[in-house]
Amino acid sequence: MNHEPDFFENLRAELSSWRLWTDRAIVLGYAVMAGLFVVGFTIAAEWAFGLFGRLHQSAPWAVLLWTPALTAGIVWVTRRWFPGAGGSGIPQIKAALDPAVPPERRSLFASLRLTVAKIGLGVAGFAAGLSIGREGPSVQVAAGVMQHARRWLSPGSTIDARALLIAGGAAGIAAAFNAPLAGVVFAIEELSGRMEARASGVIIAAIVLAGLVAVSAFGNLSYFGIIKVPSLGWNLLGPGLLVALVCGVAGGLFARLMIASLTGAPQRLNRWRARWPVRFAAVGGLLIAVIGLVSGGATFGAGSEAVKQMLAGHDELTPLYTLLKFIATWLTAWCGVPGGIFAPSLSIGAGIGDGIAQLAGPAFGPALIAMGMAGFLAAVTQAPLTAFIIVMEMIDGHSMVLSLMASAMLASLVSRMISRPLYEALADHMVKTATGLLQPATVPGETAPPADAPPTPSSR
Q1: Nearest C-alpha neighbor of 123 from the set 173, 70, 177
Q2: What SS3 state is found at 441?
């Protein structure tokens, strides 16, 4: 029989357990620390890309040597000492949450050691001018910090490792994008599949504290500022529908290409990548440098500055930019460097929206660019709720909620007809590798597992 809660009895129970409050203080302290790590990563990444920008401006052709050499070095270090740090970071946390992974092997995917390595190698990737983002890696960075809290909690604590990983991942998204709602939805849609009652408090607390640290460092500003959108009517239906469909097809193809490349599909280039990974990375870095020079530097880095210029109406990039950014992002990921695809995906989606806006009319520009960002990100990740909320919070686009939601949902639906979910497929590959169900292909000269997969038991 249900009884009404007794306030004084519950208050007495709360105040009588000092260990309960100690556990809570530990978790909150780690949430602040996770925010500090993400803020430090952000500052270091921006400094490193600024360094690359100065090199590119003063000696453009030097990047033809600098980018391949640094890319090869990053891949060598990653494969030699930190194989779990390769790639985005989101598949690693999804793999760590998989029930098939024994608790003692979660450190292959999330740990303080990998957090430090992810930051250092990610910063090096920005210094190389690679087409990467810091938002996906921030998930692994923050989750690696949060999971470390478990060793200090009492044995009877209800806060388990799973809750800490989810809270850390959500806090990483919230702090990186300054988008707390996106952090909550990301935890539900991409990491856990549901919000567990006992974990919800930890997740919200981590998001709030990590977000406050980021706001204290960078201010309470929208990532891309506030866009000015004219009154939306039925005249936006045709162009908006076209943006969603193009983003759905392009995002689905991108996800399918990424899955085939990063899971070691039996193709000639992937066999070469497995045999000579560092040489492959050097060639990939050279191609990325050439693409960057051809595009006038527009494809280097995350692409956030190009999106800001497009949203402000100061820049109109040709469809060729979008194609080159697509290729540069895929090549960067294929090389196996630590780096995310969130920000580059937003840049590609913005380019699609901008291209269609040039045909439909400049008045539709900001709206179609925002819809393209939400659509392409939703198509790549097949997480439409997270995608449209991220974009809505990044542009302060509450007036476009329905348009962004429709674009994300339609693009995700089209993408599902073309490709499997990207992060789920990569996480499944990592789980099979870590549990011995899938052995990496070994060829003469191979000394380490693929950079996008953790080491197998036999290779440790």
Answers
A1: 70
A2: coil
Residue 346 near residue 352 (C-beta atoms within 8 A): no
CB 425 within 8 A of CB 259: yes
Helices (H), 263-303: 268-275, 277-294
Predicted model pTM? 0.89
Q: What is the pLDDT along the chain (460 residues), one digit of tens a residue?
A: 567 776 766 667 666 667 778 888 999 999 999 999 999 999 999 999 999 999 999 999 999 999 999 999 999 999 999 999 999 999 999 999 998 898 888 999 999 999 999 999 999 999 999 999 998 899 999 999 999 999 898 887 878 888 899 999 999 998 888 888 888 888 888 887 665 655 677 888 898 889 889 888 877 666 665 666 656 667 778 899 999 999 999 999 999 999 999 987 667 788 888 899 999 999 999 999 999 999 999 899 998 877 877 777 666 667 888 999 999 999 999 999 999 999 999 999 999 998 998 887 777 788 899 999 999 999 999 999 999 999 988 887 677 888 999 999 999 999 999 999 999 999 999 999 888 765 554 333 333 444 444 444 333 3
Residues 80, 384: Cα–Cα separation, whole Å: 36
Report how far residue 362's alpha carbon sits from residue 230's, in angstroms, rounded to the nearest whole number.
11
Residues comprising the chain, all counted: 460
Best CA proximity match to 382, nearest among 251, 253, 262, 257: 251
Residues 274 and 266: their CA atoms lie apart, in Å, by 11
Distance CA 257, CA 254 (A): 5
Cβ contacts of residue 420 below 8 Å, gap of 6+? 255, 256, 259
Dist. CA 456–CA 460, nearest whole Å:
7
Based on its alpha-carbon atoms, the radius of gyration of the chain, rounded to whole angstroms, reads 22
In sequence order, what DSSP letters do the residues of 38-76 get, joined into one string?
HHHHHHHHHHHHHHHHHHHHH-GGGHHHHHHHHHHHHHH
Angle in degrees, CA 109, 435, 145, rounded to 5 = 15
Closest CA to 166 of 199, 137, 197: 199
CB 146 within 8 A of CB 178: no
Amino acid at 139: V
**What secondary structure letter does DSSP report for 158?**
S
Interatomic CA distance for residues 149 and 170, integer angstroms = 16
What is d(CA 380, CA 252) in angstroms, rounded to the nearest whole number?
6
